[in-house]
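Structure first, sequence second, as always.
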């Protein structure tokens, strides 16, 4: 059963999005959520197998986020 999600964006972002009406923004949001959930699943598995400090986990999460998004 599908569910609806309301997202509020600031005016500057909204204006940019409106300039690209050919893009299905709901699909973009769904894909971003999927990628974030993948990263969180990896982080959860990683944190269960290693005893890291909160700071080390945060650093790993940042690196993971960059890798998932293709920035590393």
């Amino acid at each position: 059963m599908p569910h609806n999600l309301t997202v509020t964006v600031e005016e500057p972002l909204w204006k940019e999005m409106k300039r690209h009406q050919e893009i299905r923004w709901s699909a973009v949001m769904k894909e971003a959520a999927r990628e974030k959930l993948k990263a969180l699943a990896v982080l959860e598995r990683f944190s269960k197998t290693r005893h890291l400090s909160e700071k080390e986990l945060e650093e790993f999460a940042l690196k993971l986020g960059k890798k998932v998004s293709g920035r590393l």
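Margin note: The chain has a mean pLDDT of 85.
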